[in-house]
């Protein structure tokens, strides 16, 4: 027996599904980090395969979570399912961004210094003292920028998945809200 749909039920289900989606995304990201530790040409191929695998895994999990929601609640049409997908994407993107911040600030705090040093070495001949000073001033704010970009990046992927999968799970019916002819007898 299907449950009755409500906005609160949609938000509650999306928060739990967002936690699952974030866990899958973070686990896939960790696999990608491990693959990135392999040096040489094989490491580049492994990193690409890990990135592609992460996209596929996230898409499959996202679709399964949307299908589960559709099968659990009554009267789920395309619009409600798409809104659920957007809510799921919101919760998931916030959790993944929080992980990114924790990773940069606590787990691997020297990541930003390594990136700055790599940038300096790569572009040393093109940078003047003003550019270097501007980069030094920007570095303390980088975790904030990375967090915001991470939320936006993950939410855009969730938005794309939401639109694509809502159409396949609950096809859009443009005439669903139009009532049939009324009898005036």
Structure description:
There is one protein chain. With 185 residues, this protein is mostly helical. The chain is 77% helix and 0% strand. It has six helices and no strands. It has helices at residues 7-36, 41-72, 78-107, 111-122, 129-138, 142-169. Helix 1 runs antiparallel to helix 2, helix 2 crosses helix 3 and helix 2 packs across helix 6. The longest helix has 32 residues, at 41-72. The two termini are 37 Å apart. The mean pLDDT is 86.
Key descriptive features of the protein:
185 residues, mainly alpha, 6 helices
Short description:
The protein has 185 residues and is mostly helical.
Topology (SSEs and partners):
Layout: H1 7-36, H2 41-72, H3 78-107, H4 111-122, H5 129-138, H6 142-169
Helix pairs in contact: 1-2, 1-3, 2-3, 2-6, 3-6
Q: What proportion of the residues is helical, as a percent range?
A: over 70%
> What's the rounded overall pLDDT mean?
86
Oligomer designation:
single chain
How many individual β-strands? Answer: 0
Note the beta-strand portion.
under 5%
Distance between the termini: 37 Å
Class based on secondary structure composition and strand pairing: mainly alpha
Q: Give, in order, the helices and strands.
A: HHHHHH
- The number of helices is 6
Q: What's the story with the biggest beta sheet?
A: none
Shape assignment: elongated
Uncertain parts: none
Radius of gyration: 22 Å
């Amino acid at each position: 027996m299907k449950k009755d749909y409500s906005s609160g039920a949609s938000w509650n289900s999306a928060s739990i599904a967002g936690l699952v989606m974030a866990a899958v995304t973070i686990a896939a990201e960790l696999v990608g980090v491990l693959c990135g530790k392999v040096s040489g040409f094989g490491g580049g191929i492994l990193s690409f395969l890990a990135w592609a695998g992460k996209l596929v895994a996230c898409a499959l999990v996202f679709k399964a979570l949307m299908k589960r929601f559709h099968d659990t609640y009554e009267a789920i049409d395309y619009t409600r399912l798409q809104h659920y997908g957007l809510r799921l994407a919101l919760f998931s993107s916030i959790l993944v961004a929080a992980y990114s911040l924790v990773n940069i600030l606590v787990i691997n705090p020297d990541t930003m210094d390594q990136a700055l040093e790599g940038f300096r070495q790569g572009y040393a001949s093109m940078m003047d003292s003003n550019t270097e000073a501007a980069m030094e001033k920007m570095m303390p704010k980088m975790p904030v920028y990375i967090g915001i970009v991470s939320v936006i990046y993950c939410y855009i992927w969730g938005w794309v998945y939401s639109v694509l999968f809502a159409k396949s799970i609950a096809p859009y019916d443009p005439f669903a809200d139009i009532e049939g002819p009324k009898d005036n007898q």
